[in-house]
Design goal:
The protein is an all-beta fold and 309 residues long. It is 3% helix and 40% strand. The protein starts with 8 loop residues before the first helix and ends in a 6-residue tail after the last strand.
Length: 309
Amino acid sequence: MKYLKINFFILVFLFSSCSKDKKIPIDEPNKLLEAELSKNLKFPIVFYSDRVGNKEIYIFKPNINTPDNLTNHSSDDLCPAVSIDGQYIVFLSNRTGVQEIYKMKIDGTEVQQLTNSGEQKEHPHFSPDGEKIVFIKDFSQRTEIWIMNADGSEQQMLTNNNTRDERPNISPDGSKILFMSLRHGNYEIYLMNIDGSNQTRITNSSGHKVFPIWSPDGEKIAYALNTGFPVADIHLINPDGTNDIALTSAAGRDENPSWSPDGEYIIFQSERNGNFELYQMNSDGTNQQRITNNSAWDGWPSYVNLTNQ
């Protein structure tokens, strides 16, 4: 996936913490196999990796020896997001030559292409009821946020700015969309109504705020913060932008947080050991544990609701 173009590429990948000095003990079982690491998982996770030479989507379940490849396709399949009920995965693939949005069941079956146009698509995410998908269309010099039905119909553009509006996700009550935008020269976090109205900035400080995502109860937002190269840390804020707290402070980049269905855990990607792997922590930042152990890139994790597994 193209996070950013040309001069902006580095801005999304290189996000670090501002002046937080909180140090949290980290469990780093570097030499353990993934079969042992999977014991740390509290819920199944879906992520993508290039461990077989191209980008594929995997599911990793607690106490299972190794992640299962769900896509097994010669094209790149990436950026998965799981529906709240744990039944479907929406993802990106370039199997038609253009990065489009696809949907499949949680076991990798019944793959459907949902979009088909000339623009690259990015950042798909289900609404809480599974009826809608928000996503990005990339118009080269700008990206805009769109919404559509879960079958790909009734696509509607929600933003219209000469900048980059990215990484949308819908609030647990279905009323608002959280996103990041470069419209004021710095990546900040914004909210808007589900119809695109009342676009409001909720952060305004130094550093780039990226990968924002709601907690399941709608009371917190997790995101990654960068104020320099090459460190990123996971932070929490209230939905009005107050009470900013750093949860990680390890070397390297900690990015792409995702909440467990019960709100007790956050999974994220980290390169603290020199290569992007997946880590899990309590939602207060304690008990940081490594989940994957592979020389390839592992990232973009989402938890899967256990109810239907």
